[in-house]
């Protein structure tokens, strides 16, 4: 059967009209990103269809442009937000991180022990360091109230009578040469003092244990109850105890075993005025006069004492309060 000449002509005209009508639309809409597109085998796709050689060649058959990935995150984000598809993922990450959580971070470690509003009990053993003629040993107890974390007000009490003893040096020298050095006996001492902690820290021992420590200074005023020991004329003379005003200043260190227990070492200097025995012995009836038994002038005594003991903090537990 012969087709008329007009039938092929009509087919050609229809194809040309189709290309003219849909060609610009394909060029405007089918703009694949070079990183997203893949070859599908459906023809050239017009001049506006650009396919990247790195991603191309993965499709099967015609019409499956991009192997199913052409409509991925980058293209969808670019078309939806009006952005370049290559920059879509980065912009999405930025927008997702706009809402940030605020978290309190403390760069400095908390102090191991808080002293504020706590009471410290300090039992210790005391012994003098600078008297070569009498060994002044004593039992001591101190109480401090910490009204800040570094400042405290307190008191300490010492008992010496019955614990001290004369050194062998003074006894044998006096016995062999008939020469004597005037000495005194201490009964007790009571003092008020202020304590300040300027530094604190920690140290490592044996690469296994970490101990917290602090160093402090203290000072105050109180009373010493003392009397001379008769060594010049012991057959006649005898002395009673009397109170002396005494000032004290010192240094100390604590090493914490726990948050309420520490080992303590102190060095204190108790300074007071003392009346020693008179080196001269009066003759006759004046020998019996008590007013002549002591020296005319008082002498300054520096009683440098070492204290070794423990510190116990009450209450045992405490609570940290963060600054607002």
Can you lay out the helices and strands and say which pair or pack?
Layout: H1 6-29, H2 73-81, H3 88-96, E1 118-128, E2 134-135, E3 137-146, E4 151-159, E5 165-166, H4 168-177, E6 183-205, E7 209-229, E8 242-256, E9 261-274, E10 299-314
Antiparallel strand pairs: 1-3, 1-10, 2-5, 3-4, 4-6, 6-7, 7-8, 8-9, 9-10
Features:
324 residues; alpha+beta; Porin; 8-stranded antiparallel β-barrel; 4 helices; 10 strands; 38% strand; rod-shaped; disordered N terminus
Can you walk through the features of this model?
The protein has 324 residues and is α+β, with helices and mostly antiparallel strands. The chain folds into 2 domains: 6-96, no CATH class; 118-314, Beta Barrel (Porin). It is 16% helix and 38% strand. The protein contains 4 helices and 10 strands. It has helices at residues 6-29, 73-81, 88-96, 168-177; strands at 118-128, 134-135, 137-146, 151-159, 165-166, 183-205, 209-229, 242-256, 261-274, 299-314. An 8-stranded antiparallel β-barrel has the order 1-3-4-6-7-8-9-10. The protein has a two-stranded antiparallel ribbon with strand order 2-5. The longest helix is centred in the N-terminal third of the chain and has 24 residues, at 6-29. Residues 1-5 and 25-81 have low confidence and may be disordered.
